[in-house]
Amino acid sequence: MISPRQLANKEWEMEADSRQLVNCTDWLSHNVAAWDWIAGRINSTFPLEELDLTSWCYSSSRILDYGCGTGRLMIELNRLGIKNVIGMDTSSNMCKIARTRMPGAIVTWISNPRVPKFSDLMFDTVILVGVLSSVVPVNERKALVMQLRDAIWPGGKILIADFGRSDEPIYRNRYRLPTFEKYTFKTEEDLFIHHFECEEIIDLLGSGFNTRETRRISTMTIHGNLLPGHIVLADRS
Ligand SMILES: C[S@@+](CC[C@H](N)C(=O)[O-])C[C@H]1O[C@@H](n2cnc3c(N)ncnc32)[C@H](O)[C@@H]1O
Question: Do 222 and 145 contact (CB within 8 A), yes or no?
Answer without folding.
Answer: no
